[in-house]
Design brief:
The protein has 573 residues and is α/β, with parallel strands linked by helices. It has 23 helices and 15 strands. Strand 10 and strand 11 form a beta hairpin. Helix 4 crosses helix 8, helix 7 crosses helix 8 and helix 20 packs parallel to helix 23.
Length: 573
Amino acid sequence: MKSLVSTKQRRAGVLVSLPSIVSKHSFECGDIYSLYPLSNWAKDVGLSIIQLLPLNDTGFGYSPYSAISAFAIDPLHISLHLLGIPLQSRKKEIKHLQSHPSRVRELKIKSIRDYFEANKKEALKDSSRFLQEQPWCYSYGTFRVMYETFEGKNWWEWPKEFQDPNIAKEKVFTEQREEVMFWVYLQKIAFDQLSAVKLHLEDNGIYLKGDMPILTARNSCDVWEHPEYFILDLQAGAPPDHFSQTGQTWGFPVLNWDELKKNHYSWWKERLTYLEHFFHLYRIDHVIGMYRIWAIPKDHQTALKGWFHPQFGIETNEFLKVGIDPKQMVSLGLIHEFKTNHYIFYWDFWKEEGYQSLPEETKARLFPLSQLHIYEEEKHWREAGETILEIFESFSSMLPCAEDLGSVPTFIRESLFDRQMIGIDVVRWTKSFTTGEFIVEDHYRENAISVLSTHDTSLVMEWWKKEGDLEEKLIFFFDRLGKPRPETNDQILEGLLEFVFQTKSLFSIQLFQDLAIGVSDVLENPEKHRINVPGTPDHSNWTYRFPILIEDFAEDFQRNFTLRKWIQSSGRN
């Protein structure tokens, strides 16, 4: 595929969590090899985009959005089969929907270590070459050795000498060279396997779409090596909304865009350049964060005491000008001095007891201050976000797609529209702003991806059965189109798939489980087939395995015929 001109055509695709797609040659969970039989099936039914959730190394954790490296691929994804290692899964059938990533990763790494030792001379040569080509591996390899040595302990809790990346790199590459080169070797294998998949997909007319998380775990190689790129006393999150009254705290340090700019955004350039070895398109996670992000003191358990960052704030003299002492408002818990003589108002400050206790005349002078710089702030945020997105586009020829879900401010929506950024429209949430009703197929944004579910939502069948008004859904998705009301789960899913493929959206990319026509357990018990439930413990998520081997799934004639029919009739083939 020589350019992305042909990418921006009406297309259908599938989104997968790679470990969930088990093949006959997988070891315990899906891996890079799984993409070969998956792509064969995709080509057969007419899907021309395969989208992957992040593949980043999670260390001892589970979530790929909380990785220990913004670059490194998790060894969990390496295919032993492609490497020629004959380690087989203990069972030929998938008995349980949950895998054990830590155990599987450990067994894979042990097996590849044996392979490394048996082919040490050549393996060390390969590692040295890869290290020269990918210098980020110097710091990652060192960090990984230390991370293993100290059993995942936070890098700021390591012995003092290892908290300094330069000292640590010199010491590790001198005293533990073979060990660090083994971790480099793992990355070299993953690189070779995934870049080969990209070429295979190109030969079959399929595009591979990656995912670029905007944030990085505090205990990561990137924060360890470049703490100046992050504001470590703040954590990112989301303000309160109708989904969460206390907002969301994510724990990730806030990006320091001023410092990144000083270095010409080299960290982002290196990330995008690396991703381009594997992907034709990529998802910009939480694109709103490129404009502004909700920042919360790092030790807070809720997001209530956060603010949008960056922000001008209200200056001391602006309070004094209207006869209000800002220190008094701080003592009442209504505002916060986030930098000298600059204050932010807390979310819903007017609901606080301290605000209610103020004289009405004081309230009348205080409240307008909270709105004082909104226009200037939004203008600044828009310009800053657009500058960052323009820089991203200059760094890579991959087609960017913006994750613009949630409460997106008008000025950001307008900015993304003007930039012609491809967004995401989730059917269950895509409703008329005036009537609150579902919108018809032709009213969807053209420059968007229509989806039934995401990795963070319930599957579409759980939504259909348990969430919202069923009669409203039946009227819109079936009665409106003159179709008989569905009598089976398959008929429900087929009707929803036909709708989402018919939308005006440029791309329509569906979660793999939402394409599981005829798979009774997915249809009857969709809650058991979720990938992630936000706000729940890390280790209770990201372990999902689809119950059927991909090769067996691909042989179902009726399912393939049905999907092919909807994809062709929607002009996406």
